[in-house]
Structures are given as structure tokens and as C-alpha cells.
């Protein structure tokens, strides 16, 4: 009988979440990958998530269907242009960008919490980062700490004392270059990932959105070549 602990890993198919899955597996967890079809513009990321699970392995990969388009409010879930570097819409003057999806991580963590309770898992992994990121409020360490506290009050397992949930954020204090270097050291093939907010129909990355810019900068600083296809 295996003594490996179960963990739910939130997996978008992007660079960060793929690295987190590799880290969790390297730490000896039996990983259950959770992805979402939430009405996102870049639905090709789900194909990337499937490639990642096929390559890295997981006890199970669930794709949950929720439609955040019913609320909109984001360039990722509504008919709003994705800002590109150098465009007029790229100037957010330090404000939270329009690519922020309202309450997305809160929604995603709620699903992860439910599955963790079913799996008797006390660990959830999420690829949030507070250094090289877009300024989203639900990527900050104080948010994760508050959610973890709430989560341990919210479940039967928590109340009965059979679960003490821990939300792991191994990338929180890493630069994008450090994240990439870590993944490469664990054998991650980043060609299978997709980070772009606005890929074309073939899955090629735009090269100009905030996520692409941060990714390309990270690879350059890590002294590595990004293996994904770019339109420019």
C-alpha cells in the first residue's frame, strides 16, 4: 500500500502551473491535476494541460466546467481586447489589468478544496507568484494565508479534525527566470505548455500580451530559449 500523500494541483497548462506539478511530484506527492474550462479565451491551454499530465503523470486529471463568461469583466472571459505591449490598451498606470478574471483563484481553490476533501488530501498546490506577475490581487501571500484559514473552517474534514489543509505556493517568491530554471532542472519540457492570453487558432502564442512578455523575459534571464511558437 502506497504511503505517498495525495495532493490536488491546479493546472492551467501554463509555465507556472506545469512547474508546480513537477515540484509536487518531485516532493513525493501523488498528484491529482485539476483544470478548468471556464469560458477562457485561450481554450487551447486545456490541450496544453493534457499534454503536461501525459508527460509528467497524475493520479487523475479532472477538467471542471464552469462558465465565468456569464459575469464577464475580463479580457479573458468577455469580448474585450487583450492588451498587447506597446498598444494604447497596454497602459494600465499601475492598476490591476483587464486580464484579471474576477475571483478566479477563489473559485478555483474552492473546487480544489472540495476535491481534496474527497481524496483525503491535506495539500493543494497552486502556481501563484508575487514577483514576476501581472499584479492580480488573488496571487498575493496574504490572500493565500486568508484562504487557507477559511478552508480549514469550511469542511467536514476540517471540523472533525481529520484534515488540516495546507495550500502550497512554491513559486511565490521566485522570479520567472528562477521558475524556469527550476522546471528545467526537473526535466520539464516547456514546449508542451501555453502561457499566452490570446493565442491564434493553431495555438501559436501572440508574443505581445503580458503573459507572453513575462515568459519571454524569464527565458532570456534564465539563459534559455523558449521552445513554444510565437506569431512574432
What do you see in this structure?
With 232 residues, this protein is α/β, with parallel strands linked by helices. The chain has one domain (6-80, 100-192): 3-Layer(aba) Sandwich (Rossmann fold), CATH 3.40.50.620. It contains seven helices and five strands; from the N terminus they run E-H-E-H-E-H-E-H-H-E-H-H. The chain has a five-stranded parallel β-sheet, sandwiched between helices. Helix 1 (15-26) links the parallel strand 1 and strand 2 (30-37). Helix 1 (15-26) crosses helix 6 and helix 6 (176-185) packs across helix 7. The longest helix has 15 residues, at 104-118. The protein is globular. It starts with 5 loop residues before the first strand and ends in an 11-residue tail after the last helix. Mean pLDDT is 91; it is low at 87-93.
Shape: globular
> Low-confidence segments, ≥5 residues, pLDDT <50?
87-93
- Domain module count: 1
The fraction of residues assigned to DSSP E strands is: 5-15%
| Distance from first to last alpha carbon | 51 Å
Query: How big is the Rg?
Result: 17 Å
The number of strands is 5
From the 3D coordinates, which CATH architecture would you assign?
Answer: 3-Layer(aba) Sandwich
Would you tell me the overall average pLDDT? 91
Outline of the structure:
The chain is of the alpha/beta class.
Amino acid at each position: 500500500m502506497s504511503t505517498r500523500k495525495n495532493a490536488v494541483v491546479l493546472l492551467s497548462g501554463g509555465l507556472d502551473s506545469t512547474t508546480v506539478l513537477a515540484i509536487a511530484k518531485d516532493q513525493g506527492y501523488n498528484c491529482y491535476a485539476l483544470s478548468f474550462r471556464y469560458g477562457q479565451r485561450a481554450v487551447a491551454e486545456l490541450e496544453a494541460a493534457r499534454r503536461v499530465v501525459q508527460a509528467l503523470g497524475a493520479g487523475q486529471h479532472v477538467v471542471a466546467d464552469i462558465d465565468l463568461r456569464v459575469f464577464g469583466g475580463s479580457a479573458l472571459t468577455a469580448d474585450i481586447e487583450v492588451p498587447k505591449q506597446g498598444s494604447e490598451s497596454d497602459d494600465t498606470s499601475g492598476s490591476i489589468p483587464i486580464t484579471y478574471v474576477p475571483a478566479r483563484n477563489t473559485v478555483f481553490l474552492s473546487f480544489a478544496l472540495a476535491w481534496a476533501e474527497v481524496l483525503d488530501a491535506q495539500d493543494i498546490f497552486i502556481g501563484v507568484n508575487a514577483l514576476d506577475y501581472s499584479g492580480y490581487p488573488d496571487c498575493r501571500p496574504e490572500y493565500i494565508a486568508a484562504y487557507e484559514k477559511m478552508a480549514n473552517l469550511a469542511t467536514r474534514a476540517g471540523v472533525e479534525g481529520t484534515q488540516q489543509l495546507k495550500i502550497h505556493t512554491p513559486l511565490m517568491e521566485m522570479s520567472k527566470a528562477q521558475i524556469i530554471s527550476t522546471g528545467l532542472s526537473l526535466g520539464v519540457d516547456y514546449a508542451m505548455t501555453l502561457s499566452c492570453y490570446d493565442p491564434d487558432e493553431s495555438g501559436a502564442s501572440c508574443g505581445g500580451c503580458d503573459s507572453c512578455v513575462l515568459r519571454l523575459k524569464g527565458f532570456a534571464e534564465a539563459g534559455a530559449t523558449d521552445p513554444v511558437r510565437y506569431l512574432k
